[in-house]
Amino acid sequence: MQLEKERVVRQHKEEYEAIARLINELPSRQESENALAKLNGEISTLEQDEARLQGKTDLRTKQFHLLLHTVQDLQQVIAAEEEEEKATAMEED
Fold first, then answer.
1. Model confidence pTM above 0.90
2. 26: alpha, beta or left? (left if phi > 0; alpha if psi -120 to 50)
3. How far is CA 6 from each of CA 1, 11, 15, 57, 66, rounded to the nearest angstrom?
4. Mean pLDDT, all residues of the chain
C-alpha cells in the first residue's frame, strides 16, 4: 500500500516537472504582452496607412474619371466642329 502511494506521488512529480519544463520554454507574460503591444502598434500604423492610401486611390480614380469625361467632351466638340465645317463647305459649293 505504501509502495503504491509512493509510485503515485513519484508519477505526479514527474508529470509536474515535465509540465514545468514546457512552461519554462515559453516566454514570460511580460515578454508576451510587450510583443503583443508592439504588434498592435504595427497594426494600427498599417491601418492608418491603408486609410491614407485608400483616400489617395479614391482621389486618383475620381480624377481619372474626370479626365475621361473631359476627353469625351472634347471629342464631341471636335466632332461637332468638323460637322459644322463640312456643312459650311457644302454650302459654299
1. no
2. beta
3. 9, 8, 14, 72, 86
4. 95
